[in-house]
Amino acid sequence: MTAQTIDGKARAARIIDAVKRAAEALRHETGTEPGLAVVIVGEDPASQVYVGSKARTAKECGFKSVKHVLGADTTEAALLGKIRELNADPTIHGLLVQLPLPGQIDEAKVIEAIAPDKDVDGFGLTNVGRLSTGAIDEAFVPCTPAGAMILIRDVVGDDLSGKTAVVVGRSNIVGKPMAQLLLAANATVTIAHSRTKDLPAVCRGADILVAAVGRPEMITGDYVKDGAVVIDVGINRIAAPEKGLSDDGKPKTRLVGDVAFASAAEKAAAVTPVPGGVGPMTIAMLMANTLTAAYRAAGKTPPGF
Ligand SMILES: NC(=O)C1=CN([C@@H]2O[C@H](COP(=O)(O)OP(=O)(O)OC[C@H]3O[C@@H](n4cnc5c(N)ncnc54)[C@H](OP(=O)(O)O)[C@@H]3O)[C@@H](O)[C@H]2O)C=CC1
Ligand SMILES: Nc1nc(=O)c2c([nH]1)NC[C@@H]1CN(c3ccc(C(=O)N[C@@H](CCC(=O)O)C(=O)O)cc3)C=[N+]21
């Protein structure tokens, strides 16, 4: 079977377009302009790229967009102070702190400091609890799994009754919420991780296979059931000597996922590419969550996506 390539970039563009129109409507009706604040600690180049892309897309949606860059040696107390300030700012509806954080800062404490109604990453206990108890409509769902779920629904349908899903990875930001969403859609869900025995065999049982491992091209065709839908969450930058050297004398790099695309595509019915798959959907869902936060703050019912 030669797989369909799922175009996350085009799907994300449609969501961003709908967010933009809904933001215009909200401004017209209530005068509220959605506001997104992104806080980044340190100068990690990959994080800078994502944060830049979030800020750019927020502007494209007609949002107020602010970026706070704090030094790598920022104390936990200083970061918590910044969060309190943004929690109290009525022009900010969505607030996120880019992860990972430097070692001197307790991530859990920082996530808990964000007001639940501004927690557009959906990482705080209130939103995690809503998602896992079935109150999904009230939850901010983490953007990456929310985006992946839209791609799955587009291909498989809204009801996954009778389907088996395997999520490889059990992080709080991707694997666990992804599993909750699949479960809520009635799939029979397995969460696999580094201690799983015979991972290829477990994965071959999946009608829907989600890879969120952080290991470049680990999931080959040998892990894929014939006709499966494969969602590649991984974002790995690897050396690409074939592209030559960059200005700093080091080999150029390229982006690959956790899935070996060509080999998986020989078995799968549909696969997401990297780049152009789940990554752009993550940014689009952040915009959707921020719009939702602004609608709620204005006392209006948000549109669904
Ligand atoms: N597209 C997007 O928007 C986003 C992409 N990402 C990408 O997704 C990937 C996963 O991210 P994240 O969840 O934060 O990563 P983490 O490192 O937090 O989690 C990785 C998970 O994979 C498991 N794992 C690691 N090695 C193996 C292995 N050999 N076999 C089976 N399981 C393994 C780990 O198991 P254990 O728990 O046992 O250690 C862990 O649960 C990364 O490539 C990241 O860059 C992340 C966020 C957003
Ligand atoms: N608090 C917090 N929230 C996050 O959502 C969060 C985070 N921290 N830390 C880092 C990860 C990673 N992440 C990505 C977002 C978009 C792309 C994306 O747009 N990728 C493009 C390519 C981008 C490129 O070329 O580098 C694509 O896949 O097509 C990737 C990764 C969000 N994260």
Automatic annotation (TrEMBL):
This is Bifunctional protein FolD. The gene is folD. Pfam families: THF_DHG_CYH (PF00763), THF_DHG_CYH_C (PF02882). The keyword Oxidoreductase applies. Belongs to the tetrahydrofolate dehydrogenase/cyclohydrolase family. Keywords: Amino-acid biosynthesis, Histidine biosynthesis, Hydrolase, Methionine biosynthesis, Multifunctional enzyme, NADP, One-carbon metabolism, Oxidoreductase, Purine biosynthesis. NADP(+) binds at G169, R170, S171, I235. GO terms for molecular function: methenyltetrahydrofolate cyclohydrolase activity; methylenetetrahydrofolate dehydrogenase (NADP+) activity. It comes from Aurantimonas marianensis.
